[in-house]
């Protein structure tokens, strides 16, 4: 099973790659597999360094909120 955290496109590059922000971590990934154009501010899902698809901002935020809740609960349990 693969768990993909929504990432926000923060920069578009000329070589069909984009820089994304995933929970505060920025990295450059390939958008070669995308058939539709990406723009800064889009939310995407990534698998092994490739953008697989765009997702709605509302859905992305719901997922990010849930991940944050999980992290907070894990931190409380480890204390």
From TrEMBL:
Domain of life: Bacteria
Biological processes per GO annotation: protein maturation
Pfam families the record matches: HupF_HypC
InterPro entries noted in UniProt: Hydrogenase_HupF/HypC (IPR001109)
Alphabetized GO MF terms: carbon dioxide binding; iron ion binding
Record family assignment: Belongs to the HupF/HypC family.
PANTHER family membership: HYDROGENASE MATURATION FACTOR HYBG (PTHR35177:SF2)
Protein name: HypC/HybG/HupF family hydrogenase formation chaperone
